[in-house]
Amino acid sequence: MSYMRFCVMDVGQGSANYIELCESDDSLTAAAIIDVGSEQWKTTAGRPSAAVIAGRLKEMTGGAVLDAVILSHSDSDHINLISSLLEYFDTPRTKSPTKPVLTIKKIIFGGDFGKYQKGKAVNYLNQLKEYRPRGQEEIITRLGSDFSSFKEKKSSWKPLVRVGGKIDLWALSANTTAEKIPLVGRKRLRAELPDGGFAINTRSIVTVAIFAGRTIIATGDATGLSLAHCNELLAREDVRDKLGAAAYMLTLPHHGSDTTTYDLTGSGESDAGKGVVEEFCSWVKAETISASAGERSTFRHPSARVIKDFGANLRPYPQYFDPALEASHQHFYTAYFPERSLTVSSSKAKPAGAGWPPSESWYTVRTTENVYTTDYFAEVPHTPIPIAFPWEAREDGESAFKPPPPRAISWGFIVRQDGTTALEVVRERTSANAEYWAAVEAVHGPLPSEGFVVVPSAPPTDGGPAESSSGPLPEPEPEPPDYEPPSPPPPPSRLRQLP
Q1: d(CA 224, CA 276)
Q2: What is the pLDDT at residue 432?
Q3: For 386-411, what is the mean pLDDT?
Q4: What is the end-to-end Cα distance of the chain in Å, rounded?
Q5: Are strands 13-22 and 3-8 parallel, antiparallel or unpaired?
Q6: Is the peptide bond prior to 194 cis by the omega test (within 30 degrees of 0)?
Q7: How confident is the model at residue 487 (pLDDT cuts 50, 70, 90)?
């Protein structure tokens, strides 16, 4: 039985989505990429991730082939790992190759061609073009203004590409412009967007991957205006029928940024922008959400506000339990929380109006909900670490967790040919984190002793099903101990975990 693995990879501040089609014997038969870039941790996370993709492609049956490279838009943190990936391969026209040969069949991009030129380096699109099949000259496609694969009648719909003949990649929205988008009350925006960062993000391709009737949506750096374009299409019953009743997974727009997700004009959030997000979430009904981001002083994502709004329809059963929290069916995530934004409960009385967190910043919290961030566990976490998702926080005094959680995680969202799903975690196994691996093997049994290891979805301890058909898992409600200020937890490893 074949399956799709959609990897949201740890690249620090950036985005890299790697798609595989594998067979029942786990052999890799086809692959594609949606964005591949990194900033902030490019050396420690981005480049190693590119190396891991290259390693996987070298294992491909019949030789290394990418059926498609889709670049949502031209921001560096979505494209600047292209050179790092390509350096592992020779082109199909190399006369005497000394490296494995990589063939790229199709390149699709959003935005303007010229903006893929960064500094003195060769335009990233032209770098990719060198890996085109022998005898083929043109493989680059720029999607038109206000493009959608579903714009015309259903009889004319065609996917952007079919990966391995089984995974269809579609553009829900691409190269959005202001003049085409109807908003609340059918009002329209000004005809032109300023040619700045907001406009570049607005033109992001919102890519839909469909396999075995299940849908994954990669939003790039979509803005509120991009989502308004999506809503115009999702209002059509034929489009909703194609995408299914609920998306299995959605990547949060612009890494979960609230400064652009609710923005329709490039001048800040508005009530109309909030309405657009609410409508989009009501159409998509994402069962799981993910955010690829890294803490950076000038950015505040993933925002807890965005996680809350896009998490309104999450499936109730967690697809992953952290080994440090396995008994409670929980895992961690890290997000940016405004000061005193949440009500908080604990075993000790709180002053009237008291809230959490104590100050505006990134915080690591625990949850049983299906929200997964690549920036997983804060390097120096605030204490205590409450349970939150994220409209309420509950303190129970826990602060030190064993085994120490990883600093960052890559997530592999699995869709099998029968439509069932699972979630994998990929970590590097070294002698430095023996305690973690002992806990993992206590749940899963023996695993490879070194290198990058795929950790399956943790099975439920109550005997319930681990598949998408599972029923709700009640959140455990242990009697909290008397609250005492906890001592700081031991710092987790600084090594970022990569696929």
Answers
A1: 7
A2: 67
A3: 78
A4: 23
A5: antiparallel
A6: no
A7: very low
DSSP state at residue 482: P
Rg of the chain in Å (alpha carbons): 22
Q: Is the pLDDT of residue 498 over 50?
A: no
Rounded to whole angstroms, the Cα distance separating 319 from 422 reads 7
CB 305 within 8 A of CB 258: yes
Domain ranges of the chain: 3-310, 326-369+383-455
Q: Which amino acid is at 190?
A: R
Please tell me the distance from the alpha carbon of residue 229 to that of residue 146, in angstroms, as a whole number. Answer: 8
Q: Enumerate residues 6+ apart whose C-beta is below 8 A from 258.
A: 269, 300, 301, 303, 305, 306
pLDDT, tens only, 191-248 = 455 567 888 999 999 999 999 999 999 999 999 999 999 999 999 999 999 999 999 9
Taking each helix axis as running N to C, give the angle between helix 271-284 and helix 224-234, from 0 to 180 degrees, rounded to the nearest 10: 50
Reference 373, options 221, 459, 231, 251; nearest CA is 251
Q: Which two tokens stand for residue 428?
A: 């590097």
Q: Which amino acid is at 363?
A: Y
What is the residue whose two structure tokens read 């592992």?
A: 88
Class of domain 3-310: alpha beta
For residue range 28-71, list pLDDT tens digits in order.
999 999 999 998 888 888 898 898 899 999 999 889 999 999 99
CA–CA gap between residue 259 and residue 314 (Å, rounded): 23
